[in-house]
UniProtKB/TrEMBL annotation:
SUPFAM superfamilies membership: Flavoproteins (SSF52218)
Gene Ontology molecular function, alphabetical: FMN binding; oxidoreductase activity
Superkingdom of the source species: Bacteria
A GO CC annotation given for this chain: cytosol
InterPro entries reported in the protein's UniProt record: Flavoprotein-like_sf, FMN_Rdtase-like_dom, NAD(P)H-dep_reductase
Lineage: Bacteria, Pseudomonadati, Acidobacteriota, Terriglobia, Terriglobales
Pfam families: FMN_red
Organism for this UniProt entry: Granulicella aggregans
Domain NADPH-dependent FMN reductase-like: 1-148
Protein name: NAD(P)H-dependent FMN reductase
Amino acid sequence: MVVAVLQGSVRTERMGDRAAKWVVSQLQKRGHEAVVVDAAALDLPLLDKMWKEVKTDGSIDSASLRMKLAQIAELYARADGYVVVSGEYNHSIPPALTNLIDYFLEEYAFRPSAIVCYSAGPYGGVRAAMQLRALLPEVGLPTIPSLQPIPSIGSSLSAQGVALTQDLAEKSGKFFDEFDWYMRAMKAEREKGVPY
């Protein structure tokens, strides 16, 4: 399976890259192709036009944006699922993550999403996850029932994305099992055709 891993924090001292690296390693262990879509690396402007509008806009100003978004669109066309890695900003979603998600719509259809949330404190970013539960299905990405929170991320994951706690190292398997099941089920149904 092909999985797009959306990383939304753009802060200079962010911890989300630890979580994204950990997610990629967990997916690769299961034989999946995991590709990180990093809002910080992309440096997308604040949404003015969605991908479907940008790709038909012939202006010189949008040529660079078209190139960036075309690469993402190619990945999304192959994707069987999405893992959204989100920190918690003021009990909500990082603005760059929302911006990244909003550039696309049809590309997400009939593919599951899984939420990996984190924070520096004990709650693991679950308040941001609740906001994502509202946003993701609206753009066509139904979320799997389980969440994977990572509390105290600085001491839970190394800079290389290696789990430093027994809970994270040993108890995350069910989360990824569930995500695998949803990807397989939805891929099988997409191959039969979709309602629209």
